[in-house]
Amino acid sequence: MSAVLLSGCVEEQEPVEDPSSQNELRIGLILWDTPVEVTKQFTAVEEYLGSELGMDVVTIKSTDYYAIIDAMEAGKLDIAFFGPFSAVISAERSGSEIIVAGGNADGNLETYNSYIITNRKSDITGIDYLVNNSLNISFAFVNPASTSGNLIPRGYLLSQGVDPDGDFKNTLFSGGHDNTIDAVLSGNIINSGAVSSSTYERYFEDDNSSENNIIIIWESDPIPTDPISVRRDMDPALKEKIKNAFLEMHEKSPETFQNFMDVREGHALYVEANNSDYAFIREMALSLGYI
Predict the structure, then answer these.
(1) Dihedral angle at the C-alpha atoms of 144, 149, 152, 154, nearest 10 degrees?
(2) What is the mean pLDDT of residues 122-127?
(3) 173 pLDDT exceeds 80?
(4) What 8-state DSSP symbol labels residue 206?
(5) Which of 177, 176, 137 shows the shortest CA–CA distance to 157?
(6) Rg of the Cα trace of the chain?
(7) Percent over 70 (pLDDT), the chain
(8) Could you tell me if 220 and 192 are in contact, meaning their C-beta atoms sit under 8 angstroms apart?
(9) How many other CB atoms sit within 10 Å of the CB of residue 127?
(10) Whole-angstrom distance, CA of residue 230 vs CA of residue 96
């Protein structure tokens, strides 16, 4: 098992010339914690996949959503752990295919939400205040390719007549959901921002004392959870083996699965999913000119 950390495009990996004869699985991972912590948290998953597939595993990690999207487009990844929006962008650019996503105990696709949060010490008491006083407010999105940290809240704000790029005092991308929460908590530069509900809940799970300083002033409709995609030209037999490895992980390697879920979305299992499950994300991305 090995890992590569990216800040931009991938130079270390070469495209697979014969998709039916590869012996190495190249995974793309968008970092949710520090590289050291993610490596610790993901090693057992690498080992499980390597054992199930009989392949060496190389994991390419990046804080940049687009670095992983670009790597998939360049044929330098076999699978990627995407967010819904980044999976849609990847499908548009490279034809990548969603195969599984997190599910609940009933076997249904899990969902999460986008939150707009604010510092309790600010004057922002609700979403109406934010909309009506946007010129006095500094706002943080997460990343241009983030679903709950950009696409969904941006679409909502535009529907309320607020242009996030021109109607806020300051607008920035924090680079991570945790970073947005940190910034709103400090209240020094940013007093409101968009984050995922799953990150918000995990952030305050161990120590919720500072949660009292945060107000959730808006919550989106349910969003289908983060999917896993494979490259367009993958050998069908290998694609099926990868899909089954994820679908069976909670039974074949429950400790590996549970430990991974403890630091991710906390799903009960993986379920089959496909690009059509994320059609409304694609429609919103089209309407906002992202794809």
Answers:
(1) -60
(2) 94
(3) yes
(4) S
(5) 137
(6) 19
(7) 93
(8) no
(9) 18
(10) 6
